[in-house]
Specification:
By secondary structure, this protein is α+β, with helices and mostly antiparallel strands.
C-alpha cells in the first residue's frame, strides 16, 4: 500500500468533505481515504498496482472537486491573493446593488435612469446583469452544489445553489412581466437576494480561509525554518551547496548565528543551540562532540562541524510535519457523530424548504412570500458550523502541541488524553534522566578490575538500553577504546550477551540469573547497593557469576512536582520498572508515586497495562526503551520521552521532543481544553440551526419575527465565523 496527501480545492463544508470521503472509499483500489476540511487535504492509502495519482485525481474530479497535487503547506498563497482581489471587487458591486434596490426605500438620491419606479425596465435589467455577474462569481458554489446533488451527497452548496437560482429565475420571470407592461412587478424582484447571499457566502469563505491559514502557522514555521543551503567541507576547502546536494556522510560547517542545515552528529567544536522552534525548549542547549543536532535549530555562539545523517524527507523537521499532517487527517469519535448528523442535515433542510413552500401556497400566501421563505430556509441552514466544530479545533490544538514540542500522531489521542485517569511511568530515562554512572563494582574473578571493566563496557556499548550511557562515560573518563564483540544478542527484559576477547559474557538483572539457573550468594552486597538506590547488573563470565555492578541515576528535577500536580488532577500514578524492588521503592517514596511495581519483564509490563484497562481505567504509559514498547503500544495513550529508542518512538502515540515531564501536564491540559472547545462548537452549531430554521420557516411570523434571504446569508456566515473564533481561542492555552 502507498499513502499520499493531496490538496483539495472546492470544499466548503463538512458535507463536501464527507461526500468526497465516501466517494473515494467506494472506489476499487483505495484502501482508505480521510478528507480534512480545514487543511483542505485528502489522505489516501491505495494499491499502487491498481491505481496511481492521476487516477485518484480523476476520482476527485468526478466527485465535483479538484486536486491541487501533492499537498504543500505554502502552495495556497497565490490563490488566496487572487481570491482577495475578487472579494473586494464584488464587495463594491454588492454595495451598488444594495444602493439601487434599497436607496429609494430610505429616501437616498438615485440616478433617474436607474430609479425603480420611474424606469423599471432599465432598473430591472441592470440588477439582472449585476446579479448574473454574482452567479458567475459564485459558479464554484453552484457547480459544487450540483455535483454533490447528482452524486447523492448534497451539501451546503446544494442548499445555496437551489436557493439563489430559484430566486434569480423567479426575478427573471417578474422582469419579463415588467417588459410586457406590468411595471408593478418591480416590487417583486429578488435579484439583490441572489447577489448578496452569494457575497455573504464568499465573505464567510474568505474569513474562513484567513482563519484556517492561522491554524497552519505552527506547521508553516516548521517548514520555513530549514535553510535552503549549506556549507560542506571538501578536504581543506569549504563549498556552499543547496540542501538537495547534501549527502549523508558529508561534513557540514555551521558558524555562530547560522542555522543547522541538516540533522547530524557533531564531529568538531561546541556551541549553544537554540532548538525552541522544534522542541519548544526556550533555553539554548549546550552541544559538543558526538551529540546530535537538528536541522532548523540555531547555532548561538560556536563553530561546529557535523556529519550529515538525516536529510530531506528523513529529517526531524519532515517527520514532525508528516506526523502533524497525519494527525489532522484522523478523526475523533466525537467528530464521527458530527459527520453522521451533517450527512442527514442537508436532505432534511431541502425537504423542510419544499414542505414549507407547498404549505404557504396551500394556506393562501402569495407566490412571492412562498419563494422568499423557500430561499431563506435554504440559505440560513448552516452545516458548515457543524462540520468545522471538530476539525478546526483539532488543527489548532495539533499546531499548539507541535509548537510546544509535543507530537501527537492521531487526533483521537487528544480525546483519550482528556479522559486519562492513570499514568504509568517507566523509571530509567523517564522519571530519571537516564544519564547513569557506575557507583559500585565488585569483582570476584581472577581478572584484574580494569581489564574486566573493559570487557563489560565493550559488550554494553552494543546495547541500546539507557544503561549503556554509564559505560560510555566510564570509557571516556578512562580514555579506553572498546574491543570487538561477536555473537551479540539482546535478551528482552533480562540483559545482553556476547563474546569479548574470546570469552562468553552476559550482563543483566536477576531475571537473567533465573533464566540460566545461575546463583549469586552475596545477598549482603545486593541489599547494600539496592538500599542506596542503585540498579544492579550481574556479570556472568563463562556461565559463572563473577561480579556485581551498581549503577545509579539522577531523578529529574521536575518529576516530584509533576507527580504532585497529577494527583491534584485525580490522576493515579504508577512506577512500573524491570529494576530491583529496593531501587524502585526508593524512587517511588522520593517522588510520592502511589503504586510501585518492580522486577517486571516487558511481557509483564504489557499484562499490567491490560489489567488496568480491563478494570475500566484510561491508561497512559510513559517510557523510552525497547522493553517499554509493548506496553506503549497497548496503552490507551503511549508516550515516548525525548531520546527514546526508535522502537519505543514507533510504538508510542505521543512523542515529547524535549526532556521535560511538564509536557505531560501540557498535553492533558490541551486535550481537555480541545474537547471542551469542540463540545461548545457543536452546541452552538445545533442551537443555531434549531433556532434559525424555524424562524426562516415563518413559525414565529405571528410574533412579528421574520427573516429575509439577505439576513439569512449573514446569519449563516456569522454562525461559521463564531465557531472559527471559538476554536482559535485554543491558541491562548499556555
Amino acid at each position: 500500500m502507498k499513502k499520499i496527501i493531496l490538496g483539495i480545492d472546492g470544499m466548503s463544508c463538512s458535507a463536501c468533505s464527507n461526500g468526497l470521503e465516501k466517494y473515494l472509499n467506494r472506489q476499487e483500489g483505495i484502501e482508505s481515504a480521510v478528507v480534512n476540511l480545514v487543511m483542505a487535504t485528502a489522505s489516501i492509502c491505495y494499491d499502487e498496482t491498481r491505481l496511481d495519482q492521476k487516477k485518484i485525481e480523476r476520482f476527485i474530479k468526478e466527485a465535483g472537486f479538484r486536486s491541487t497535487g501533492i499537498y504543500r503547506v505554502n502552495a495556497e498563497k497565490e490563490t488566496h491573493r487572487k481570491e482577495k482581489i475578487m472579494f473586494f471587487l464584488f464587495g463594491f458591486l454588492a454595495l451598488i446593488i444594495l444602493y439601487l434596490s434599497m436607496g429609494t426605500m430610505f429616501g437616498l438620491p438615485v440616478v433617474e435612469a436607474l430609479h425603480m419606479h420611474r424606469n423599471p425596465k432599465i432598473y430591472s435589467s441592470v440588477l439582472c446583469v449585476l446579479s448574473f455577474l454574482f452567479l458567475i462569481y459564485g459558479f464554484d458554489i453552484i457547480k459544487s452544489g450540483w455535483n454533490n446533488l447528482i452524486h447523492r451527497t448534497p451539501n451546503m452548496d446544494t442548499l445555496v445553489m437551489i436557493g439563489v437560482i430559484s430566486s434569480f429565475l423567479y426575478s427573471v420571470y417578474h422582469m419579463v412581466l415588467i417588459f410586457y407592461g406590468e411595471p408593478t412587478y418591480v416590487e417583486h424582484l429578488y435579484f439583490e437576494s441572489t447577489a448578496i447571499v452569494i457575497f455573504f457566502i464568499k465573505l464567510g469563505r474568505y474569513i474562513d480561509a484567513v482563519n484556517k491559514n492561522k491554524t497552519k502557522e505552527a506547521i508553516q514555521k516548521l517548514v520555513q525554518i530549514t535553510p535552503t543551503s549549506a556549507v560542506i567541507k571538501r578536504g581543506t576547502k569549504e563549498e556552499k551547496v543547496t540542501i538537495d546536494e547534501v549527502q549523508p556522510g558529508d561534513i557540514v560547517i555551521c558558524k555562530a548565528g547560522e542555522k543547522i542545515a541538516v540533522d547530524g552528529t557533531i564531529v568538531k567544536g561546541s556551541a549553544h543551540i537554540d532548538e525552541s522552534l522544534i522542541t519548544g525548549e526556550s533555553k539554548p542547549v549546550a552541544k559538543s562532540k558526538d551529540e546530535k543536532v537538528i536541522a532548523g535549530s540555531i547555532n548561538y555562539d560556536g563553530y561546529l562541524e557535523y556529519r550529515a545523517e538525516k536529510i530531506g524527507k528523513d529529517s526531524t523537521i519532515s517527520e514532525i510535519v508528516r506526523l502533524v499532517m497525519e494527525a489532522t487527517n484522523t478523526k475523533m469519535p466525537i467528530a464521527k457523530l458530527a459527520d453522521r448528523v451533517s450527512g442527514y442535515f442537508v436532505p432534511v433542510v431541502i425537504l423542510l424548504a419544499v414542505i414549507t413552500f407547498i404549505a404557504y401556497l396551500i394556506l393562501g400566501y402569495s407566490m412571492d412570500e412562498a419563494v422568499n421563505t423557500f430561499v431563506t430556509i435554504l440559505v440560513v441552514a448552516c452545516p458548515c458550523a457543524l462540520g468545522l466544530a471538530t476539525p478546526l479545533a483539532i488543527v489548532v490544538s495539533e499546531g499548539l502541541c507541535a509548537s510546544r514540542g509535543i507530537l501527537v500522531k492521531h487526533s483521537e489521542i487528544l480525546e483519550l488524553s482528556s479522559k486519562v485517569d492513570t499514568i504509568v511511568f517507566d523509571k530509567t530515562g523517564t522519571l530519571t534522566y537516564g544519564r547513569l554512572r557506575i557507583a559500585h563494582f565488585v569483582n570476584h574473578s581472577n581478572i584484574d578490575e580494569k581489564t574486566l571493566m573493559l570487557w563489560i563496557s565493550s559488550l554494553e556499548l552494543q546495547s541500546t538500553h539507557p544503561i549503556r550511557g554509564a559505560f560510555e562515560l566510564y570509557m571516556k573518563q578512562n580514555n579506553l577504546k572498546p574491543l570487538d564483540v561477536t555473537d551479540f544478542k539482546n535478551i528482552s527484559g533480562e540483559g545482553i550477551r556476547g563474546t569479548v576477547n574470546g570469552k562468553k559474557m552476559m550482563l543483566g538483572n536477576e531475571s537473567l540469573l533465573q533464566h540460566y539457573h545461575l546463583e549469586y550468594s552475596c545477598q549482603k552486597e545486593i541489599d547494600q547497593f539496592s538500599n542506596e538506590g542503585n540498579s544492579i547488573i550481574f556479570v556472568v563470565l563463562e556461565d559463572s557469576v563473577v561480579g556485581l555492578i551498581g549503577v545509579n541515576d539522577v531523578v529529574r528535577e521536575e518529576a516530584k512536582a509533576v507527580i504532585a500536580q497529577l494527583h491534584e488532577k485525580k490522576v493515579h500514578t504508577v512506577l512500573l520498572t524491570g529494576d530491583h524492588k529496593n531501587v524502585a521503592d526508593k524512587i517511588g517514596r522520593k517522588l510520592k508515586v502511589e503504586t510501585v511495581v518492580a522486577n517486571v519483564l516487558p511481557k509483564e509490563k504489557l499484562n499490567y497495562i491490560d489489567t488496568l484497562k480491563k478494570e475500566g481505567h484510561i491508561v497512559m504509559m510513559c517510557g523510552d526503551g525497547i522493553n517499554d514498547s509493548p506496553a506503549l503500544a497497548h496503552a490507551d495513550v503511549g508516550l515516548s520521552m525525548s531520546g527514546s529508542t526508535d522502537i519505543a518512538t514507533d510504538a508510542a502515540d505521543v512523542i515529547l521532543m524535549k526532556e521535560d515531564l511538564n509536557d505531560i501536564l501540557r498535553l492533558l491540559d490541551i486535550s481537555k481544553h480541545t474537547i471542551r472547545n469542540i463540545k461548545q462548537n457543536l452546541f452552538w452549531a445545533f442551537f443555531y440551526n434549531v433556532l434559525m430554521i424555524p424562524i426562516a420557516m415563518g413559525l414565529f411570523r405571528d410574533f412579528g419575527i421574520t427573516l429575509h434571504p439577505m439576513l439569512a446569508g449573514f446569519a449563516m456566515m456569522f454562525s461559521s465565523f463564531t465557531v472559527m473564533l471559538n476554536a482559535l481561542r485554543l491558541k491562548t492555552i499556555r
